[in-house]
Amino acid sequence: MPQPNLPLSDADIRQFIMEGYVRLSNAFPRELALEAQDILWKEMNLRPDAPSGWKAPVVWLGEHTQEPFIQAANTQVLHAAFDQLVGPERWAPRQSVGTFPIRFPGNDEVGDDGWHVDVSFPGYEAAKDPGNYFKWRSNLHSKGRALLMLFLFSDIGENDAPTRLRAGSHLDVAKMLRPHGDKGLTALQIAEKVSHTAHRPEAVATGEAGTVYLCHPFLVHAAQKHRGTQPRFLAQPGLFPKKPFSLFNKENNYNPVESAIRLGIGLDKEARAVQA
């Protein structure tokens, strides 16, 4: 039975398994989000009080290891949630919060709003072209990624380019990946097939600064145009596994990530998982 002081309830766990994501409000302090914003504004050489300089629809910034980012990624509530979804001692603490696609208000098309799954390991094609992310792969055991996470470093409403999520699409992706074994599929191959998830209901990752969406690594998601008035600050790191996921074990006990994969490929007929 789950302990009452854990951040995710039984209903949250079931939502994660069935829909592929769960929203965790107040996952890190708002003060850290504002400190991080200050660092990012300076890096872009832009100012929050000078919108005339916001000319690009999106600015991509790389990994950040300054203290506010590390603290935001390693709060007690997040660590407890990782334990619930992945299992104690089965994930590695983040030393950054991944890349930042900072989106600005405007009507310009960016061309980066296609539905996709974040791939997690370089395949043989990537050996000759390691910087080409489209040649990276994902497989049924989600090698190299335990969770996809969306860290909201600003308040994000429905008009502020919230990430779009296809609820339940992770089950379809598990079924898609099954025939391809450990080799898996490349990012482009998956992107060509995600139209099969179009029947899934769409949700958006809105919330106040300090909110984190914990998503199944197979969840199909997409960016969208910014229709609001203030820039959107969001990071999208993965959680790295310490141990590979297992879809068969002697104890017949599975964490929620594994349980969702088993459900998607028909090994389970209902959502079930063991909480820490």
How does this model look, in words?
This protein has one domain: Sandwich (Jelly Rolls). The radius of gyration is 18 Å and the shape is globular. 24% of the residues lie in helices and 16% in strands. It starts with 9 loop residues before the first helix and ends in a 12-residue tail after the last helix. The chain contains 7 helices and 14 strands. α2 (30-44) packs across α3. With 276 residues, the protein is α+β, with helices and mostly antiparallel strands. Strands 1, 3, 7, 11, 13 and 14 form a 6-stranded antiparallel β-sheet that branches. The protein has helices at residues 10-19, 30-44, 67-73, 76-85, 169-177, 187-193, 256-264; strands spanning 21-24, 58-61, 91-92, 100-103, 121-122, 136-138, 147-152, 164-166, 185-186, 202-204, 212-215, 221-222, 234-235, 238-241.
Residues in β-strands, percent:
15-25%
How many DSSP E strands? 14
CATH superfamily: B-lactam Antibiotic, Isopenicillin N Synthase, Chain
Contiguous uncertain segments of 5+ residues: none
Query: Largest beta sheet, briefly?
Result: 6 strands, antiparallel
Query: What is the CATH topology?
Result: Jelly Rolls
